[in-house]
Amino acid sequence: MKKIINYPFKLMRDLYDWTISFSKSKHSNYALFTAAFIESSFFPIPPDVLLIPLVVGEPKKWIQKASICALGSICGAFLGYLIGYVFFETVGTYLVNLYNLHSAIDLLGEKYAENAFLAVFSAAFTPLPYKAITISAGMFKISLLTLFLGSLFGRAGRFFIVAGALRIFGAKIQHSIEKYFNILSITFLVLLIAGFVLLKYAF
């Protein structure tokens, strides 16, 4: 039973370690862009995982790292949009089932009808899976301009806050993530639920 319980944590830990390994590469900026790009449509690990060690390693370049991360995430949003707009019945449905995004998709659909820009911005800033935003945006056919602007302010705001905090507090944050990974994984799930509540009742 213990092995079954620990399996999700081990899987996420393995993916975390694999992602963070790119921080030591001379092509780390490309890896950061790629991680942010693919997380927008299908990859489960948020790009913050790679952003953190890169900013800790080069704190004076925190603006550059945050910009790369935001750019990759926003560019990847258009791939997620394409999946939702054209390939939802195949690729989109598979991803929704894989990551259990049904509730997020339904909630975002309601919010798009009320205020699409605010929905994208709010969801992009919270721990809600960004792929749920991009795929549902294509599925519900909101305008690309709305997706772009909402993502620009939401994702850039998030990554610049993370990078700015790292510029101030440095390696202490990364050390805490390494030491308390399982606890932080549970905390992330709590924040994910809080993100749903915020999106549902904030507007």
Key terms:
203 residues, 10 helices, mainly alpha, globular
Distance separating the two termini: 42 Å
Give the % helix. over 70%
Using DSSP, what is the number of strands? 0
**Portion in strands:** under 5%
- Unreliable parts: 1-8, 180-186
**What's the total helix number?**
10
Calculate the mean pLDDT score and round it.
79
Which shape, going by the Cα principal axes? globular
In brief, what are we looking at here?
The protein is mainly α.
What does the model show?
By secondary structure, the chain is mainly α. It has one domain. It has 10 helices and no strands. Helix 4 crosses helix 5. The protein is globular. The chain starts with a helix and ends with a helix. The relative contact order is 0.13. The N terminus is likely disordered.
Write the topology of this structure.
Blueprint: H1 2-20, H2 28-39, H3 48-57, H4 62-86, H5 88-98, H6 102-125, H7 130-139, H8 144-169, H9 171-179, H10 181-201
Helix pairs in contact: 2-3, 2-4, 3-4, 3-8, 4-5, 4-7, 4-8, 6-7, 6-8, 6-10
